[in-house]
Structure formats: structure tokens, C-alpha cells
Amino acid sequence: MRQLPFVGFVLAVTLLAATRAEALVNGIDISVFQGTLTAANWQQIKASGVQFVFARVTLGSCCDHDANYVANLNGAIAAGIPIGPYAVGYPQTNMSDPNDAANEANYLISLTKSYYQGSGLMMRPVLDIELPTDGSLTKTYTSQWVVKWANTIKAGLGVDPIIYTYPNYAATELNSSVTSYPLWIASYNNSPPATPPASAYAPWSTYKFWQYSSTGTVPGISGNVDLDVYNGNFLQMLQQYSPNYSNGDYNNNGVVDAADYVTWRNTMGNSANPGVAADGDLSGLIDDGDYATWRSSFGNAVPNVPAGAGAGFAPVPEPASSLLLIIAALTTLSRRSSRHLR
Q1: Are 331 and 285 in contact (CB under 8 A)?
Q2: Torsions phi, psi of 36, nearest 5?
Q3: Mind listing the pLDDT tens digit for each residue in 96-124?
Q4: What is d(CA 233, CA 221) in angstroms, rounded to the nearest whole number?
Q5: At residue 85, what are phi and psi to the nearest 5 degrees?
Q6: What phi and psi, each to the nearest 5 degrees, are found at residue 52?
Q7: Per-residue pLDDT tens for 233-245?
Q8: How far apart are CA 225 and CA 214, in angstroms?
Q9: In this model, does residue 340 exceed pLDDT 70?
């Protein structure tokens, strides 16, 4: 039976969404130990199915940083892979300094803020908290240190960070005050499609990222590399953990409105870094798919506004915006109909 074009379009989108929801969202985390990666390496990494990366940037406060962090951030962005910076925390080294956590966080901010204001897909920053304390720190002290670090990141970059740790450290060194921040757990006792048991991520009630191997292999990288998965689908990850993802807010003013339709229309046919500018569907091309992203998000406030961008929230569209929405919908439907008549 011949279906109406629009019905077929809706069915195709529904099937695609279902397929993406079931697929694993694969990632890696890297540092100087993976060597210097070229543009060709990054293309191999992307082609292998890697969908996100975390890269080490800082180790404590000024001025110890990973020698390859700039190359890694730039390389992933150029390849269109979302990437986030991680900082190795040292709560045990400067216990007499009440500003120690803030100092370490501010050092990460100083090296990465320009990336969050740029045109690449950045992931939220991560605190890697795993170094042994040898009993010198209390659970309360360590947890307060983590919260101070996280609050400084929120003030400087506009987003809450992710906390990376392993099961024993989480259970013995941290209390529930840190569980408001999303967890990236390192647990190697099983691997996808299995999931880590709840005991692996206490005191958190769930995890968002899972590092399940430290001895993985990925095309484009020589030697071992850490392997990770996101607990959800790719679109959910971008919406919740990539501050730069446009999600229909193509002019970065904090709300999906009529002005974003104008931005999409005026840049139609242009190429873009996947997920930024007016490329809401991550195709790398500004096309009808990006109109669909804008239309489905119209009227919504977008919380992940890049640091430094304006934030004029408007939860209810003005009449002019509503009229433009109708005109835009009719224009797009007309374009679809004319293609089917050829």
C-alpha cells in the first residue's frame, strides 16, 4: 500500500530514534600516554565508532598540565567528536589552604574556558578523584573539597562538572553531598551490554558514564586506551552533557524561538561542525533535519548555553514568533510536497 509522504517520514524518524536508543554510546579517555594524535588518527578514531572523548588537562593547581591537551582538544573538535577536559584532583596535598580546591578548579577553567566559548562540541569538565589518601583525610573533608571544586567550575564555566572515581574510593572516601553531580564510574568487573551492579557506584543511585576497561584497543591509537560508555542515547548525552550543543537554539540566546528559524533559513546549505551553529541534527550540513530539531524544541528554554553567551529566556513564544512558526512549517511542508511531485 502506498503511504502518504509525511506518514512515511514520521515512521522513518520513529525507527531511527528507536535504533539510536538501543545502541551503545561509545567513548574513550586519553592523555599524553596515548601519544600525539594526528588528524588522520582522529578520523580513524571517529570511523571506529567513538562518539565522545575525555582528555586529561590538569593535574592539581598551576602549572602542571598534560602535554598533549591542546592537541587532543583541537583534534577531536576538528574531527567532530564531542570532547571534555578532565582534571586530576589532589585534595591531600595542600590541606592547610582553604582555597586549594578552588585553585585547582580555576586552573582548569583558565586552560579550557575558550573552548566552551568556541564552535566545537565540548562535554562537561570532569574531576578525576581517585588518589589514595592513606587515611589522612576524612570522608567529610574530601567530600567538601569536591563540592568546592565543583562550585568553582559552575561559577567559571556555567555547568556542573562530572565526578570520576572507582567503587572503593566512592564508598569509603565520599559521602552523599557529592551525589548531586553526575558520576563517571571506573569498574572493570564486567563489560557492556552488562551493567555494573549498584554496589559499584554507591553512594550514587546511578551512573552516567562507565569506564569498563583500561586495556582497550581503538583504530588510530597505538597501545591500550580506556573504554567508556554513556548510560543513555547519543542525543540525551548531548542535551545533558554538551554545553555547546545547539539543540535548536541556533543563535545561543537560551531559548528556541523564531530568531533561530531565521538563523537556520539564512545558513541553509552551509556546512558546520556537527551539533553547533544551526546543525541541530549533527549531520555536518545545515538542512531540513535541522528545521525538524528546531521545530520539536520550539518554545523551550535551553539550559546548556555556552559560557559567555547571552541568556534571554522566554518560556512562552510571542505572537510574532507563533506566526513565524506556522509560516516556517508551511514552507517546509511545501518544500517536501514539491520534491515528491517531481
Answers
A1: no
A2: -90, 120
A3: 999 999 999 999 999 999 999 987 899 99
A4: 25
A5: -90, 145
A6: -155, 160
A7: 998 999 899 998 9
A8: 6
A9: no
